[in-house]
Automatic annotation (TrEMBL):
<dbReference type="InterPro" id="IPR026283">
    <property type="entry name" value="B-gal_1-like"/>
</dbReference>
<dbReference type="InterPro" id="IPR001944">
    <property type="entry name" value="Glycoside_Hdrlase_35"/>
</dbReference>
<dbReference type="InterPro" id="IPR048912">
    <property type="entry name" value="BetaGal1-like_ABD1"/>
</dbReference>
<dbReference type="InterPro" id="IPR017853">
    <property type="entry name" value="GH"/>
</dbReference>
<dbReference type="Pfam" id="PF21467">
    <property type="entry name" value="BetaGal_gal-bd"/>
</dbReference>
<dbReference type="Pfam" id="PF21317">
    <property type="entry name" value="BetaGal_ABD_1"/>
</dbReference>
<dbReference type="InterPro" id="IPR048913">
    <property type="entry name" value="BetaGal_gal-bd"/>
</dbReference>
<dbReference type="GO" id="GO:0004565">
    <property type="term" value="F:beta-galactosidase activity"/>
</dbReference>
<keyword id="KW-0326">Glycosidase</keyword>
<feature type="active site" description="Nucleophile">
    <location>
        <position position="238"/>
    </location>
</feature>
<feature type="active site" description="Proton donor">
    <location>
        <position position="156"/>
    </location>
</feature>
<keyword id="KW-0378">Hydrolase</keyword>
<protein>
    <submittedName>
        <fullName>Beta-galactosidase</fullName>
    </submittedName>
</protein>
<dbReference type="Pfam" id="PF01301">
    <property type="entry name" value="Glyco_hydro_35"/>
</dbReference>
<feature type="domain" description="Beta-galactosidase 1-like first all-beta">
    <location>
        <begin position="373"/>
        <end position="488"/>
    </location>
</feature>
<feature type="domain" description="Beta-galactosidase galactose-binding">
    <location>
        <begin position="506"/>
        <end position="564"/>
    </location>
</feature>
<dbReference type="InterPro" id="IPR008979">
    <property type="entry name" value="Galactose-bd-like_sf"/>
</dbReference>
Length: 590
């Protein structure tokens, strides 16, 4: 049985061991491609894979657990072991990761509790979740013939709080459910975050997160260790080799040569986990959101991250730059040629059918009636869209003064099916002129949850609740009698395309294509406005004409031989009568 210990260094079977790790999130990579990514990690010369575990995917509704398909963490870890890789696991409850609400499940918002604290109700839910999750990890620890070296307690807590009792409570729950491998925390490398977010007094290993200046950052960590008389190995648990991207911003790139030199500086001084080795994709509605001032800035579907492997899992120049320097510095390290997949641009296909959202509400949703509007969470919905509808009466000849109060994140207002306005965070609450030629008007408000904040002070702000909050006002009074239609869009297979399509309204566009030779591809969304795409009824993510990405990556695992169905849900009334594929990502010049 192998043995891993943390003393003045990392020791594996009694010998000093340098951890050379790369982050691969199993939930951002199609299971058919796990081998490809893990093999390439090993081929570069690294010995360990690190992954987060997203609570909100594994327990999407309270008490309902899912570890199947892309969520089969056990299969991912077993495959890593078969390839000779060790593992580091960061098992929630909060993961950040530019992920929807930092991995916290939205149903927690419906309970009287405080997340990321020693609140008893919150810890009880975490305990219930760990009862399902952690036994899967226990038997994969190094001490149980597995390859998991260590586990993280919480995540970057020093950038959020300083409640040591909470961190200790998380650690106790992890021990309660059988984890015996060493624990660690990870935080920014400066004293403020280390003092607030670590359990150094409890002898829990402290690691740091940074992306450059390893000598300087490790010195800050060493100084902190010295305060407590700790003689520990230095490790960067997140060495940022790229960065994430937001809608409307330019793509962030990092020079491969500069990165490789910075990585080697870190490796010479300690151990490393490259964040990310393979970034993958924010499939579905799972992108996170950055908090900046008064607005939240949602991140794009691609989690390419300008990482060591590109979004599809193929080596970038960074891979070769790091591999060559690593081999030169450590000649005994085993390296290999990486695996490379070829993407294919399938022939373009013409639009087959189209139908309106409003005409299909009864198929896609169950109507809820309430005098006052209810938000998503109150109706058991976490992500997607939600539609509110009521009738209002004309009280004067001139345009009615109308306002939406407390709506999140993006709203589209329709009067008798005609678009009146679209508002985002900074505009919601502004007056809207509502022209009412008839005595009664049907008012419809479509609200999109564009992603919850995943990091920082706004993580627990009321703004992370989605849909309509206090409602809408005509003149000076709140409007009542709402029909509410939750639209998580988990299944679009039953849409009725014989129903009406109306120009300028949200709609579904159906395309079919014949594929005989499966391959990865990129869907070019040029010509479409904003929305999401379903490939064979799987939500592969959001698109938006504002860029910087104008494509959606489709792993070949979501395709099948024969007829494939692509359904585009588009909210702006902008669409193309053809859909095109590409061999490579398509970007917008900003």
């Amino acid at each position: 049985m192998k043995d891993f210990q943390i003393k003045d260094d990392f020791y594996l079977d009694g010998k000093p061991f340098k951890i050379l790790s790369g982050a691969i999130h199993y939930f951002r990579v199609h299971p058919d491609d796990w081998y490809h990514s893990l093999y390439n990690l090993k081929a570069m010369g690294f010995n360990t894979v690190e992954t987060y575990v997203p609570w909100n995917l594994h327990e999407p509704q309270k008490g309902q657990f899912d570890f199947s398909g892309i969520l089969d963490l056990e299969a991912f870890l077993d495959l890593a072991q078969e390839l000779g890789l060790y593992s580091i696991v960061r098992p929630s409850p909060y993961i950040c990761a530019e992920w929807e609400w930092g991995g916290l499940p939205a149903w927690l918002m419906t309970e009287d509790l405080q997340v990321r604290s020693s609140d008893a109700t919150y810890l009880k839910h975490l305990d219930d979740y760990y009862a399902f999750l952690l036994p899967k990890l226990v038997k994969r620890q190094l001490s149980h013939q597995g390859t998991i070296l260590m586990f993280q307690v919480e995540n970057e807590y020093g950038s959020y709080g300083e409640e040591k009792e909470y961190l200790r409570a998380v650690g106790r729950l992890m021990r309660k459910h059988g984890l015996t491998a060493p624990f660690f925390t990870s935080d920014g490398p400066w004293r403020g975050t280390l003092r607030a977010g670590t359990l150094i007094a409890d002898d829990i290993l402290v690691t740091g997160n940074f992306g450059s200046r390893a000598k300087e950052n490790f010195k800050q960590m060493q100084d902190f260790f010295d305060e407590y008389g700790k003689k520990w190995p230095l490790m960067c648990m997140e060495f940022w080799d790229g960065w994430f991207n937001r809608w409307g911003d330019e793509i962030i790139r990092r020079d491969p040569v500069e990165l490789a030199e910075a990585v080697m500086e870190c490796i010479e001084l300690g151990s490393i986990n490259l964040y990310m080795f393979h970034g993958g994709t924010n499939f579905g509605f799972m992108n996170g959101c950055s908090a900046r001032g008064q607005i939240d800035l949602p991140q794009v579907t691609s989690y390419d991250y300008d990482a060591i492997l590109d979004e599809a899992g193929n080596p970038t120049r960074k891979f070769y730059e790091i591999q060559s320097r690593l081999k030169a510095a450590y000649p005994d390290i085993e390296i290999a040629e990486p695996l490379i997949k070829e993407a294919k641009a399938f022939p373009e296909v013409a639009l087959a059918e189209k139908t309106g959202l409003f005409e299909n509400l009864d198929i896609l949703s169950s109507k809820h009636q309430s005098f006052y509007p209810k938000n998503m969470e109150a109706l058991g919905q976490s992500t997607g869209y939600i539609l509110y509808r009521t009738e209002i009466e004309r009280d004067k000849e001139e345009p009615e003064r109308f306002r939406v109060i407390d709506g999140r994140d993006r709203i589209q207002v329709y009067a008798d099916g005609q678009l009146v306005t679209t508002q985002y965070q900074t505009e919601i609450g502004d007056d809207i002129e509502l022209h009412m030629p008839e005595k009664q008007v049907e008012l419809t408000i479509l609200v999109e949850n564009m992603g919850r904040v995943n990091y920082g002070h706004k993580l627990t702000a009321p703004t992370q609740s989605k849909g309509l909050g206090r409602g809408a006002m005509a003149d000076l009074h709140y409007i009542g009698n709402w029909d509410i239609y939750p639209l998580p869009l988990k299944d679009v297979s039953q849409l009725d395309y014989s129903r009406t399509w109306t120009e300028g309204q949200p709609a579904f566009y159906r395309f079919t294509c014949q594929i005989e030779e499966l391959a990865d591809t990129y869907l070019d969304m040029t010509g479409f406005g904003k929305g999401v795409v379903f490939v064979n009824n799987v939500n592969i993510g959001r698109f938006w004409e504002k860029g910087p990405i104008l494509y959606l990556y489709i792993p070949k695992g979501y395709l099948k031989k024969g007829e494939n169905e692509i359904v585009v849900f588009e909210t702006e009334g902008k669409y193309s009568d053809k859909i095109r594929f590409s061999q490579k990502p398509v970007y917008k010049d900003l």
